[in-house]
Amino acid sequence: MLQKVVLGREPTHVELHSHTHKRQEDQQWVDERARKVFEEYTQIQESQVAASEGSSNGSTEYSDYRTWSQAVGGMQHGRVYGLSSQAHAYEGQASGGSSFLVSSQESLCSQQITTLSSELEHVRKAQAD
């Protein structure tokens, strides 16, 4: 099972999708939709990375959600394929996913602190030179 213990962090949407939608014996996708979603997500993410080289605008986690949502065609019938009720936490709607939202916010804060600390270190080194 793909867990925080194995990865040392929470799995991303696409990591969880790959883990749960591939057969263990041959690593083949369980169906065509699963494969297409993965490929679409990968293409969107690559184009976003190329378009935003060097900029850090916003949450990585929220950006990952938006990319995933775009790859699967957005919210349908109140759900986003592969996320179940977690989509409501990102969409800002009331749901039972409030503990997920708190966990996501904590993770986001931790990532932002790490990024800002790194940027501050680079600025200090540049000023010292």
TrEMBL record:
Residues 10-28 have a biased composition (Basic and acidic residues). Residues 1-28 are annotated as: Disordered. InterPro entries: Probable_transposase_24. It comes from the Eukaryota. This is Uncharacterized protein. It comes from Dendrobium chrysotoxum (Orchid). The lineage of its organism: Eukaryota, Viridiplantae, Streptophyta, Embryophyta, Tracheophyta.
